UniProtKB/TrEMBL annotation:
GO molecular function annotations of the record: guanosine phosphorylase activity; purine-nucleoside phosphorylase activity; thymidine phosphorylase activity; uridine phosphorylase activity
Family designation: Belongs to the nucleoside phosphorylase PpnP family.
Name recorded for this polypeptide: Pyrimidine/purine nucleoside phosphorylase
Xref: InterPro entries: Ppnp (IPR009664), RmlC-like_jellyroll (IPR014710), RmlC_Cupin_sf (IPR011051)
Leading EC class: transferase
E.C. number: 2.4.2.1, 2.4.2.2
The gene coding this protein: ppnP
Catalytic activity: a purine D-ribonucleoside + phosphate = a purine nucleobase + alpha-D-ribose 1-phosphate; inosine + phosphate = alpha-D-ribose 1-phosphate + hypoxanthine; cytidine + phosphate = cytosine + alpha-D-ribose 1-phosphate; adenosine + phosphate = alpha-D-ribose 1-phosphate + adenine
HAMAP family xrefs: Nucleos_phosphorylase_PpnP (MF_01537)
Length: 104
């Protein structure tokens, strides 16, 4: 749960509406997105390091420079480096949060 947040009311919409998210700004200035993915296969690019946490459902991910796909279920997470691409497969649905991390 996030407290003391400001939310952007306009959704971030990707892949013809199959992936959507909303951006939240926490009291400490951190930016977080809350999103949902419908079934499909997606490739995402990052500008910043990201921590993805699956909150409901399951996704299978192929992280940069890896050969094996990982299955990520509810309450599990993965980190994606900045300036990279990663692939996601969703069979039913996936609800997630994405936190943007500094590389300190």
């Amino acid at each position: 749960m996030f407290k003391n947040v400001n939310a952007e009311t306009k959704a971030n919409i990707y892949f013809d509406g199959k992936v959507t998210s909303r951006t939240l700004y926490l009291a400490d200035g951190q930016r977080v997105t809350l999103g949902f993915m419908l079934p499909g296969e997606y490739t995402f690019g990052t500008n910043e390091m990201e921590r993805m946490v699956v909150t409901q459902g399951t996704m299978t991910v192929l992280l940069p420079n890896q050969k094996e796909w990982l299955t990520i279920s509810a309450s599990e997470e993965f980190i994606v480096p900045a300036n990279s691409e990663f692939q996601v497969k969703v069979a039913t649905y996936a609800d997630y949060t994405c936190s943007y991390l500094s590389e300190e």
